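quick one, 130 residues, struct below
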Amino acid sequence: MLEAHGMAVEMKKQDNHTLYLTIKIYGDIAYDDFRAMEQQLEQTLATMDRPRIKALVDMIDFGGWEARAFWEDIRFTRKHGDEFGKLAIVGVEFKEKLMARVADWFLLSSQVEYFEHLDQARAWLEQDEG
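---
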Protein backbone atom coordinates (compact mmCIF):
# COMPACT_ATOMS: atom_id res chain seq x y z
CA MET A 1 0.00 0.00 0.00
CA LEU A 2 1.33 3.45 -0.93
CA GLU A 3 1.63 5.79 2.05
CA ALA A 4 0.51 9.39 1.63
CA HIS A 5 3.29 11.92 1.98
CA GLY A 6 3.85 15.56 1.31
CA MET A 7 3.77 19.08 2.58
CA ALA A 8 0.90 21.53 2.83
CA VAL A 9 2.29 25.07 2.69
CA GLU A 10 0.58 28.36 3.49
CA MET A 11 2.28 31.75 3.19
CA LYS A 12 0.72 34.98 4.35
CA LYS A 13 2.41 38.38 4.17
CA GLN A 14 1.66 40.55 7.18
CA ASP A 15 3.42 43.49 5.52
CA ASN A 16 6.42 43.96 3.21
CA HIS A 17 8.79 42.66 5.91
CA THR A 18 6.96 39.87 7.76
CA LEU A 19 5.90 36.54 6.28
CA TYR A 20 3.92 33.94 8.20
CA LEU A 21 4.83 30.49 6.89
CA THR A 22 2.91 27.38 7.94
CA ILE A 23 4.09 23.95 6.84
CA LYS A 24 2.22 20.72 7.63
CA ILE A 25 4.33 17.64 6.95
CA TYR A 26 2.78 14.22 6.60
CA GLY A 27 4.66 11.03 5.95
CA ASP A 28 8.16 11.16 4.52
CA ILE A 29 9.50 14.34 2.94
CA ALA A 30 10.48 13.70 -0.68
CA TYR A 31 12.98 15.88 -2.53
CA ASP A 32 10.32 17.05 -5.00
CA ASP A 33 8.00 18.07 -2.14
CA PHE A 34 10.73 20.12 -0.50
CA ARG A 35 11.87 21.75 -3.77
CA ALA A 36 8.31 22.82 -4.62
CA MET A 37 7.96 24.49 -1.21
CA GLU A 38 11.41 26.05 -1.48
CA GLN A 39 10.72 27.57 -4.91
CA GLN A 40 7.39 28.98 -3.78
CA LEU A 41 9.01 30.52 -0.70
CA GLU A 42 11.91 32.00 -2.66
CA GLN A 43 9.49 33.63 -5.12
CA THR A 44 7.58 35.21 -2.24
CA LEU A 45 10.74 36.39 -0.45
CA ALA A 46 11.98 38.04 -3.66
CA THR A 47 8.97 40.39 -3.53
CA MET A 48 9.73 41.54 0.03
CA ASP A 49 12.07 44.12 1.55
CA ARG A 50 14.36 42.65 4.26
CA PRO A 51 11.99 39.74 4.94
CA ARG A 52 11.53 38.18 8.38
CA ILE A 53 9.83 34.80 8.48
CA LYS A 54 7.72 33.55 11.35
CA ALA A 55 7.36 29.84 10.63
CA LEU A 56 5.23 27.09 12.13
CA VAL A 57 6.25 23.57 11.10
CA ASP A 58 3.72 20.91 12.09
CA MET A 59 5.64 17.63 12.22
CA ILE A 60 3.06 15.63 14.18
CA ASP A 61 2.56 13.26 11.22
CA PHE A 62 6.20 13.42 10.07
CA GLY A 63 7.71 10.11 9.00
CA GLY A 64 11.23 10.91 7.81
CA TRP A 65 13.33 12.38 5.01
CA GLU A 66 14.61 11.28 1.67
CA ALA A 67 18.36 11.87 1.81
CA ARG A 68 18.23 14.40 -1.06
CA ALA A 69 15.45 16.33 0.70
CA PHE A 70 17.48 16.46 3.91
CA TRP A 71 20.56 17.85 2.14
CA GLU A 72 18.42 20.34 0.23
CA ASP A 73 16.98 21.54 3.53
CA ILE A 74 20.48 22.13 4.88
CA ARG A 75 21.44 24.07 1.73
CA PHE A 76 18.26 26.14 1.92
CA THR A 77 18.74 26.88 5.62
CA ARG A 78 22.30 28.09 5.03
CA LYS A 79 21.07 30.39 2.25
CA HIS A 80 17.98 31.82 4.01
CA GLY A 81 18.65 31.22 7.70
CA ASP A 82 19.06 34.91 8.55
CA GLU A 83 15.58 35.64 7.21
CA PHE A 84 13.92 33.49 9.88
CA GLY A 85 12.90 35.51 12.94
CA LYS A 86 11.03 32.72 14.71
CA LEU A 87 10.60 29.02 14.03
CA ALA A 88 8.10 26.92 15.98
CA ILE A 89 8.38 23.16 15.48
CA VAL A 90 5.45 21.07 16.66
CA GLY A 91 5.78 17.32 17.21
CA VAL A 92 5.13 14.50 19.59
CA GLU A 93 8.23 12.35 19.29
CA PHE A 94 11.89 12.66 20.20
CA LYS A 95 12.93 13.04 16.53
CA GLU A 96 10.91 16.26 16.20
CA LYS A 97 12.43 17.63 19.39
CA LEU A 98 15.87 16.76 18.03
CA MET A 99 15.03 18.53 14.74
CA ALA A 100 14.22 21.69 16.71
CA ARG A 101 17.59 21.53 18.46
CA VAL A 102 19.45 21.05 15.17
CA ALA A 103 17.49 23.91 13.55
CA ASP A 104 18.45 26.13 16.49
CA TRP A 105 22.14 25.41 15.78
CA PHE A 106 21.80 26.39 12.10
CA LEU A 107 19.52 29.39 12.57
CA LEU A 108 21.84 31.41 14.79
CA SER A 109 19.97 34.71 14.41
CA SER A 110 16.55 33.11 14.96
CA GLN A 111 14.47 32.03 17.90
CA VAL A 112 13.62 28.33 17.64
CA GLU A 113 11.22 26.56 20.00
CA TYR A 114 9.72 23.08 20.19
CA PHE A 115 6.07 22.55 21.14
CA GLU A 116 3.78 19.57 21.53
CA HIS A 117 0.60 21.59 20.89
CA LEU A 118 -0.21 23.75 17.86
CA ASP A 119 -2.08 26.40 19.87
CA GLN A 120 0.97 27.03 22.07
CA ALA A 121 3.22 27.35 19.01
CA ARG A 122 0.84 29.82 17.35
CA ALA A 123 0.63 31.93 20.51
CA TRP A 124 4.44 32.05 20.78
CA LEU A 125 4.78 33.12 17.12
CA GLU A 126 2.38 36.02 17.73
CA GLN A 127 4.59 37.42 20.49
CA ASP A 128 7.11 40.09 19.53
CA GLU A 129 10.63 38.95 18.79
CA GLY A 130 13.04 39.78 21.54
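The chain is about 40% helix and 35% strand.
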